[in-house]
Amino acid sequence: MVTASTLLGLAVDGLAFGVFLALLGVGITLVFGLGEVLNLAIGTFAVLAVLVATVVVQQGMGLVVAAVVALVAVAAFGLFVDRTLLSLVYRSEGEDRILLGIFTTLGLTVLLDGILINYFPSRYTLPLDVGTLSVAGATLTGSSLVIVAVGTVVLAAVFAFLRGTFLGKATRTVFQDERGARLVGVNPRRIRTLIFVLSAAVAGLGGLVFAAGSAVAVSNGFEFTTFALIISIVGGVRSLVGAIGAGVLLGLVNQFANFFVGSYIATIILFVTAIVVLLARPEAIQ
Amino acid sequence: MSSRASLGTEVRNVAIVAVLFAVAPLVVLGSSYYESVLAHLLLIALFAVALNIVFGHTDQLFLFVGGLAGVGAYTTALLADALSISAWVTLPVAALVCGLIGMLVSYVSAKRNFTVVLISILTLNLQLVFSEIFVGARDITGGSTGFPYEYFSLGVVAEAVGIETKLVLYYIVLVLLVATLGVYLRLVHSKYGIAFDAIREDEVAAESIGIDVVRYKTIAGFVAALIIGVVGAFFARESGYVLPGGFTFLAVDVIVLIVLVVGGLRTTLGPVVGAVIVVGIEEFLSSAQSLQTWRTAIFGALLIVLFLYFRRGVVRSARDLVADARGGSTGGNGGSDVDGGQ
């Protein structure tokens, strides 16, 4: 018999996994909503953050310093990719741009995987040694609680930025109507750069959050990208709230399915959910 | 707009290629390693021909070539084992299963007006489901350790004819390639080809002049998936062992996409030329130990550069070069690499 305390423990771990999924989903949604570029390299950005943090930790630095350095590094790399690769992609329009975006970011994933695997051949983890916490007889994983807290703060900050600041408003203008944005003096290309860098950092944080609980290998990059895609689809592709909701929901579903029916079925449930949503309401997505 | 050569010329070109590949094993002088490389090359080319039909001609980006190939390979083998009959009997069944999957995907996508991004995401998700099933359904697929794949009783033929088993497989695959190119030529030089062109140019306009867009896209999806399923079985037979890892997105789809684009979308021999180039690069990389570890990185870079700067493909560029050399006036679409030379 499964006790209520076990269920509570599962729920917290599920929420933590949900935060990871939500961060990836938000990362891919931001960029697609803004520039029609489906960033298939998003998972590799997450892995990159973990690798940078691992190197910094190996130098004897603390975990917080490592996390900050990793996020800055990934953001800088995002800026580089935006200025080089994406500038070329944005030259084309419409369907052409979408296809070009898919193929170049796919190529980027394969390229980065191929480079990184030579230097980081094993699995890496960033253990958060915060022990466990007992609440009403349930044993909660400390790291899961930290992840949920960090995730909530960061996602709230992203929303505050989009809702509250001038730049955020400019961003939402481009989201809704690119020509309108131009008319009121917003430069869509600069906004896209900003958002791409932001999305890289958010995805990087996703990677760090994941590595706090499990080991990450270079080959996980593409898997993370597929998670991001699923979350984005289930959330409606252009909706950040949707992405967060989908992330949390599927995180919980996945964790419980893992526990009750095994990880193999749990993963299939994730993919099938995405397929069902795609077929059920494609108009919400295009 | 058709830059296609006449059917006669194209048939002649395919025949030349067929003869070249028929004598190719003589050149490698019975080296069983190079016979494997040649067979692998033809199999990759076959995948690319299938993708050319569905993606090149009808803009349906199937990102589950690997998954479909796996379905073909596993279904052929598992059915043959379960019913204790020859794989030659179960292969058409497996191919049909794949064809129906492709048909269903195309039908639903066309019916619901999926954009190319949606189809690619849908098929990528299916690819991941298939991969997960190959690994997870341990009891019937053998899980991640797979099982030996010695079907099609090629040894019997080899003994009867007096050549190696590997060569028998190679010639079967070659026949398959020529037959598939034949189907491809029939398709693009018929009303189907014209309809495909019209749909790709402007779907609404095509519909307005009475072209049944859903029907043509569905047919393209069916034919391509059917071919992929058949090729998948021989793909597994060539390696002699079936493993889920052999049918992943990164192992199959990425390579097939590169092959198709290097060679040239919507060209008859593009897939073959692309396969020669890509397999050539693979062989070069594996010849030097220091380069071997960079294989993945190089293919990633190749994918980026090709799609940004070389979407016209080798075949079309070469054709233009020849035309220029002859002083022809067909150089009009030179430098149109951004629009894929359409």
TrEMBL record, chain A:
The chain crosses the membrane at residues 6-30, 37-57, 63-86, 98-120, 140-162, 194-218, 224-252, 259-280. Pfam families: BPD_transp_2. GO terms for cellular component: plasma membrane. It is found in: Cell membrane. PANTHER family: ABC TRANSPORTER PERMEASE PROTEIN, BRANCHED-CHAIN AMINO ACID TRANSPORT SYSTEM PERMEASE PROTEIN LIVH. Belongs to the binding-protein-dependent transport system permease family. LivHM subfamily. This is Branched-chain amino acid transport system permease protein.
Automatic annotation (TrEMBL), chain B:
Its main location: membrane. Keywords: Cell membrane, Membrane, Transmembrane, Transmembrane helix. The chain crosses the membrane at residues 12-31, 37-54, 61-79, 85-107, 114-137, 168-187, 218-236, 242-262, 269-288, 294-310. Coiled coil: none annotated. Signal peptide: none annotated. This is Branched-chain amino acid transport system permease protein. One of its GO terms (cellular component) is plasma membrane. It is a multi-pass membrane protein. It is found in: Cell membrane. One of its GO terms (molecular function) is branched-chain amino acid transmembrane transporter activity. Pfam families: BPD_transp_2 (PF02653).
